[in-house]
Amino acid sequence: DLAPTIAALAGAKPGVTMDGESLLPLARHPSRTRTRNLPIEGAGFEAVRSPRYTYVEREAGETELYDLKRDRYQLDNRAGEPRFAGVQARLAARLAELQECEGRSCRR
Fold first, then answer.
1. pLDDT, tens digit, for every residue of 73-82?
2. Which of 22, 53, 71, 104 is the most buried (most CB within 10 A)?
3. If pLDDT is split at 50, 70 and 90, which confidence band does 34 have?
């Protein structure tokens, strides 16, 4: 979201498709939060964070799932637990979508 925000601040019209969204509306009106899944990329992992959960896929094949409502410091990995199977499957599917999308197709 940084590139679209910088472009908006500069008043620039990007010549390429941008995946993120400007953060200016949120900065101007912080009380208007939106619930969306945020992709996270790092060295050796990709993740998606929803308002309630963080789901991580590591290059080595491990997965992690954290319930942020009950575990805000992400200490208890719930991946593979049967009661979280539906959540894990939905977030894994969303992460796969986010890895392949571009521009407006990333937003839903």
1. 999 999 999 9
2. 53
3. low
CA distance 14 to 77: 40
pLDDT at residue 100 in the model? 81
DSSP per-residue string spanning 53-106: EEEEEETTS-EEEEETTT-TT--S--TT-GGGHHHHHHHHHHHHHHHH--GGGG
Residue with tokens 């912080």: 30
What is the predicted pLDDT for the residue at 35?
65
